[in-house]
């Protein structure tokens, strides 16, 4: 049965009159999230107090929610766990992968990676006497040599939408004796990720973008089963202990993916995320990918036919692109503020990129048409040329 995207759209509480093309930064609120969180607070936290860790299953919630995400990233049950922030999970995955290759010191990444991942790797490299080597995105495959310990790549470039070939790069890394860490921040819920099929080693991702878990919702981490009982991340926490309530002063890692837990689960946030994942139960990732390509192709065609002032900043080939499109304009920030004023919401990425994310769960061709019309009018009539549109806000 084909996925009914008109039905999934009804699962989101989108403001009237808004065309929302920023789900690659923060997904909208699912209709059921507020009620689910309210029920958790009034029936569980309020009435159960601390007994909710057992009675309501708060302690095991990170595993249950993670199993729902596993299907969306091509992983198996019991291979993913939730918790903490994406940066923490990046640190855990890269440090664990590096420790599995103790005779090598190079962590390889690319300039299209999200800066936070590079910051984490820079700090880790200082701590363990390693080297972070950064190349251009198109140079990654050639740069995978026999001195590489870890390949750390964000599958879909946050700015251009360029999609790395996970299977090919993982194969090359393994041929050279390296391990892979994939950041799925702009992949999970947007494209057809297949971790096991690609034979990847580690993966991490956030849940507040295409998975619609809410601002600051917790990250996830996946370890291939062949590494699950050998991985030893530097960052070890109470919840990752074999028997946390023995209060042993010496750390003993839990079995499998459980050792990748660190801090206390964010139960309220996980409850909202669990509600957000309900909509995925009837979604085919094949249909999702096809719909994403339809939307992004239509948007590129419409903008290029009507807006000669902008230049495409994303791959033209949809097979090399995630579910977002970027266009360059010298006044991109002001142009985006003018669009937002007209209730067409995308975002800006420095230095000059207009970025638009397309989420098939709630975006349709009507959103594409409205965005094209709005951008055309703003550029044609120079509606962006206002002083207030040029004043940078704290979050861009």
TrEMBL record:
One of its GO terms (cellular component) is cytoplasm. It holds the Pfam family KYNU_C. Keywords: Hydrolase, Pyridine nucleotide biosynthesis, Pyridoxal phosphate. Its EC number is 3.7.1.3. The modification N6-(pyridoxal phosphate)lysine is found at residue 209. It catalyses: 3-hydroxy-L-kynurenine + H2O = 3-hydroxyanthranilate + L-alanine + H(+); L-kynurenine + H2O = anthranilate + L-alanine + H(+). Coiled coil: none annotated. Gene3D superfamilies: Aspartate Aminotransferase, domain 1, Type I PLP-dependent aspartate aminotransferase-like (Major domain). Pyridoxal 5'-phosphate binds at residues 86-87, 114-117, 154, 183, 186, 208, 238, 264. Its cofactor is pyridoxal 5'-phosphate. Catalyzes the cleavage of L-kynurenine (L-Kyn) and L-3-hydroxykynurenine (L-3OHKyn) into anthranilic acid (AA) and 3-hydroxyanthranilic acid (3-OHAA), respectively. NCBIfam families: kynureninase. PANTHER family: KYNURENINASE (PTHR14084). This is Kynureninase.
